[in-house]
Design brief:
Helix content: over 70%
Shape: elongated
Largest sheet: none
Low-confidence stretches: none
Number of strands: 0
Order of helices and strands: HHHH
Radius of gyration: 20 Å
Mean pLDDT: 84
Length: 129
Amino acid sequence: MIVKLCAVVVCEAVLYSLLRETRPELAFILQIGAAVLLFFLIAQDLREIRTFFLNLIAGNQTTASYGGTLIKILLSALTAQFAADTARDCGQTALAKQVEFAGGVLIVILALPIFKAILQLLSAWLGGV
């Protein structure tokens, strides 16, 4: 798998270098296309990671209710980082920062039930002393 990823990156880098001076609009499209292709190449690995975590969580009843949330948080962070890096590579620094901010807000929103459960656990623990 890593050989495929590296081959795509090397081919894209060489073609981008050749097109950058003469046809910058094609170089840009090539760069976006390569990023999308890389994302689809690793999509299968992301599914395997998701399956691993779901199986791990299924074995423990306590974390089962929050396991899906943790997976959503992890995948949201990876997706936001990928989008921000792609925007940054295209020279869109402001857009990249907005994507990172939006990803952070989404992660906080997704994590609110976990924060609530932790606070309830601490409250019950400290109240029982």
